[in-house]
Every structure is written in structure tokens, then in C-alpha cells.
Amino acid sequence: MNEGSKKTIRLLCFSVLGMFTFSFALVPLYDVFCEVTGLNGKIELSATTNKNLETESGRNLSVQFVSHNNEQMPWVFRPTDSLIKIQTGEYHTATFYVKNPTDKTMTAQAIPSVAPSNAATHLKKLECFCFEQQELAPGEEALLPVRLIFDDDLPESIKSVVLSYTIFDVTDYNAIEMTEHHNDSDHHDGHEMGPSL
Amino acid sequence: MSAVIESSGHDDHHHGPAKGLTRWLYTTNHKDIGTLYLWFSFSMFLIGGAMAMVIRAELFQPGMQIVEPEFYNQMLTLHGLIMVFGAVMPAFVGLANWLIPMMVGAPDMALPRMNNLSFWILPVAFFILLSSLFMEGGAPNFGWTFYAPLSTTYAPPSVTFFIFSVHIMGASSIMGSINVVVTIMNMRAPGMTLMKMPLFVWSWLITAYLLIAVMPVLAGAVTMMLMDIHFGTSFFNAAGGGDPVLFQHIFWFFGHPEVYIMILPAFGITSHIIETFSRKQLFGHTSMVWAMTSIAILSFVVWAHHMFTVGLPLAAELFFMWATMLIAVPTGVKVFNWVTTMFKGSITYETPMLFAIAFVVLFTIGGFSGLMLAITPADFQYHDTYFVVAHFHYVLVPGAIFSIMAAVYYWIPKWTGNMYDERLGRLHFWLSFVGVNVTFFPQHWIGLAGMPRRVPDYALQFADWNMVSSVGAFLFGASQILFLFIVIRTVMGGKKATPEVWEGARGLEWTVDSPAPYHTFSTPPKIS
Questions:
Q1: Are the beta carbons of A26 and B246 separated by less than 8 Å?
Q2: What is the 3-state secondary structure (H, E, C) of B10-41?
Q3: In which domain, by residue range, is B400 found?
Q4: How far apart are the CA of A38 and the nearest CA of chain B, in angstroms?
């Protein structure tokens, strides 16, 4: 085999490795892309640090709250008000009611989404129950707050925004982490394959 | 004409194939490996076809008659996977193995041992995939596109075997592609410049680059699935911060170049056949090369047209719509060139030419329905209906598969030294041609009328055309048994073929004897 062939083979093998790496690089790239452009209705999962969002000259905006339960998630989960009329550049606190009707302690994670998606970058939250997981004892209920503001740069064409939360049962996922962190403990209950099996 | 074959004096044992089963197991000869690939592909074509027959039998009438919905989904999934990865792709790799060394005047592929490995891991991959039919929970049932979370959270346990088999198929394709690129780039006969290369070789060079670029991405996608299922990661799980839409982006970043991988070699084959049977030089060789290159490059920036309905922003929908429509330009150049080659040619209609002309016409119909699907607002209506099924079957069955059949009829005299039975060949063509159109054309109508794809049962208003479609499918399926018969008969014997085989055939492969000797071009031929 001549030098030329060896060089081609090396080049092609590097391309294969490079593309395999690239497929994994697509994951953070996708998130960054969505975050920068505000596509996909993805919202930052942390509190805003920008203090200068409040203005007096805001305009009217109606915000609808929608709640979903993922799969078999048995919790009662609904917004206290399904529609509020607010001003841009003004803080509001909305609440969601949750109840764990089962007889075991469960942990939940809420994932937000905004429609239309180009409103997502203009929605800022001071606090939100979606920033952390919620644990409820059997029969326990709670009012979960979200403190939010739409900045004044929200496009004029948007008169109404839908803020949707989907609540996921993550009890089993936490169980995996427990078994991974305390491998010697007796929490090991055969769930290490994840909740899907 | 056969003076280019070296008749060297040293011992004979290097010059013929070994005997028995080990000949095939240990072979590093590009012709043997090409034959193995082609037979493997044919057997997968029959298995995948049998699954299609189950699907069409169930859809013959509304209501559930023959199989359970769960089994129907497994048939649907395996039919897609087997036809894409088991029938079409290995058939093209087999043709590449047989033809590329002969077309560029090389003695063999550049990496013969890897060639052997890349073939022999394929039967393993498909054994694993098919064995999942007999596992608890059944075979994969999430469609050949295996969208998460259907293929992760809701998948049957056999999904792990599916993932492993996709890894093996990917490794096989990547090795095959590396082999093709190294052979073409480094082993051409002196004087064969890149632009003098036959179009089949060009089409495979481009295809191999596409495979090297996207098969690792497919491997990445299934690896992420594996990690989501077994190692608690959340690439595609929204509860853990992942995103199911991300799966579709990664899959179609692989998937769209993949559909061109399945059609570019067909472009090359068609160019050769139309040139030969029109008895004219191909019109626009250089523009054909540029058209294929542009199609390949554009294939990387159109993936999201498969997912217009996931909620893309307007700017993205417009971009992907226009980029997709742009592909019609180089494709139009190719169709124009084929038609112009035939214009005022002394055409004869042997079986390969019949298949090639049907390819041009029917592939163009598939291209047009693709353009309809590219229109974003219209796609919202067509998405996930039988219109999509009709579209991609038009480009894959009378597109890719007709071109493979055309290639088999065209080159089988070179492979076996025997002519096939022309009357039976034409009969096979007409049965397939009628069968394919009766099967898939009505699916455009039931799709536009709103019948969703991937359903085992349907509303009554779709009953008539589904029955017609099933009848067409049974005809098409049965006529492939005739194809098998013709091929076996040609291998066994028949009228002896001359080295040129076809009047007006161009290319180095027609300068060697028929059947092609076990070793060809041990000394490189002279290219004028």
C-alpha cells in the first residue's frame, strides 16, 4: 500500500471520529442555539439577575397558564388562575395548585414552555417552582409560586402568551441517583434500569 | 480487447478462487465480496418484502383481520429497517465492489481484508435484528425512524438489540465507504483523471463521503438512546432536561443524507445504461458530476423538512422549504441530461433500458411529490399521511430498487458470462412496473384524502384504493420470485456473452472477458 492510500485512510478515520464527536456536540449546540435565539419556547431554568426590567410604560398583555401531567403522573396539578391580564415591565406572581393523592412520597419536576416561542427570551422569572424538584408526602398539597415579568422588548405583535408547565414524576430517577451514590445501601430495589423498563 | 489482462507465467494457485465454503468466508476478492453483498441484499429484499406483504394483507380490508396491531407495528418497523439497511444499501455496496475496481482499472479494492470484515458483520447485524421478533415484548415497533421517546421510554426490551445491530450496520457501512474512497482516490489507472471517471464511480465517491459523514451521527443517536434507556441520562427525556425534538434533529441530520445515499448510486447506474442503449455519448458528463456534488452538499441543510410540524419558528420553516426546493435544480439537470442523451439516439429497449427509463419517469414523479411536501403549509396537511408513504416509495422502489434491477440485468452477463433470458426479463419488468404503480399511485390519493400512515386499520372511505394498492403489492411481490428465477437461471447457464456484451457499451469493465476473470487489471490498463 502506498503513502497516498495511508494518508487517505488516516484522514477518513479522523473524519469518522470527528463526526461521532460532532453528533454529541449537537446536544449542547442545540441548547445554545435555542437559548440564543429563543426558539423552541425554552426558558432559562434559573432566576434572572437583571434588575432593570421594570418600566412604567408597559402595554397590556394577557397570559394564559396551562398545566399538563406527563404519562401516568397522578398528581393534581392546575393553575390557580388560568388567565391573567398584566402589563409588560411589571412583576406578577402566579400560583399553581398541586396535590399528591397517592399513598407514597413522590418527587416531581415541572418543565416550562412558552408559546409563541419568540416570547420565550422576553420572559424572566425571579423565582419559579420549576427551578427545583418538588417533594410531596402522601395527601400533601401546596401552592407553588412563579414570579415573572415580561420585558418591554416583547414584540408588538404578541398580545397573548401561553405559559405551559408539564409535570413529570421523577421519583424513580432520584432512586437511581440514590443507588448510584450509596451503592452499599439497601435502597437497591431493582430500578437501576430506569423507570422505562 | 482482452489483451489488458495479464497472463503471467507463475503458478496457478493464485489465480483461481479457493474451493468450498471457506472461499466465501475468507475471500478478499472484490468480485466474490460483491457477489456476497448482492445475494445478501437479495435475501433481505425477499424478507423485507414478505413483511410488506403482511402489511398489505392486513390493509386489504378495513378492520383487523390477520395480525395484531402490535405485530403490525413490528412488521412496519422491520420492513423499513431491512429495506433501507439490508436491501438497498448492501446492494449498492455489492455493485461498488464488483464494478469500481474494474471501472477504474484497479486489481482489487484498496483494503481487501477490511472488505471481507465489512461484509461478514452484516449478516450478524441482521440476525440480531430479526431475532428480536422472537423475544419477549416483540421486535422494535417504533417505525424505522425510531423517534424518542417511542424508542426509549416506551420501547420493548428488544430495543437494546436493535441499537447494537444498528451499530454493527453503521460500522459495516463506514468500513465499506473508507474502502471505496481509498480505492477511487489512490488506485485509478494512470491517465484516469477525476473528471474522466465513469459516473457510477463518481456517484459512489460522493455517496461514500456522505456515509462517512453521517453514519457516525446515526451511531451517536443510538448511543444516546442506549444511555437514556440504561444509564439514566436524559438526552431525549424532558423530565431530566432533555428534549425529544433533539432526537428528530439528530436523526434527520443523518436521515436526509441517508436518503441521498440510497439514490446517488442509482443516478450513476442510470447514466451508464441510458448512454449504452441510446448508442450516444452521455450528454453533460461534467454537469452530472456537479449536480451530484451539489445534491450531496445540499442534503446536509434540509433535514428539518421532515419535521415541519414540530413547531419550528417561521424563519427555519422558510429556510428549510427553500433549501429543499433548491435541490430540484441539480436533480432537474440530471433528468434533463438523461432525456437529452436519449434524444435522437438509436434506442433499443432491452430489459436494463426499460428499467432505466422507468427509473427516470417514476423517480421524477417521486421528486415532484417531494416538492409538494417541501411546501411548508401544504406539508402541515400531508404530514404523516399516505401521501408521504407514496412519495418515498416512489423514489425508493421504482427509484433505487429499479436501478439495482437494471444494474443486475446490465452487468450480469459480465459477472456470469451468460446472457439472461430477454423475454423473461421484459416480463419481469412489465409485471414490476405495473405492480409498483398500482401499489403506490393510489396511495397519493388516499393520503391527500387524509389517511394517516402507520395504522393497521382505517376509515371506510379508504377501503377501495387500499384494496387496489394491496393487489398491486401482491403482483409486485410475486414478480420478484420471477426475478430470482431469472437470476438463478442466468448463473446456471445461458447464451454465452461476448466481452462487450452490449453494442455501444463504454467503460473498462467491457474490455475484459465475460465472465470477468477472477483477477483483472493486475497491470493497469492504458487510458486514452
A1: yes
A2: CCHHHCCCCCCHHHHHHCCCHHHHHHHHHHHH
A3: 30-511
A4: 10
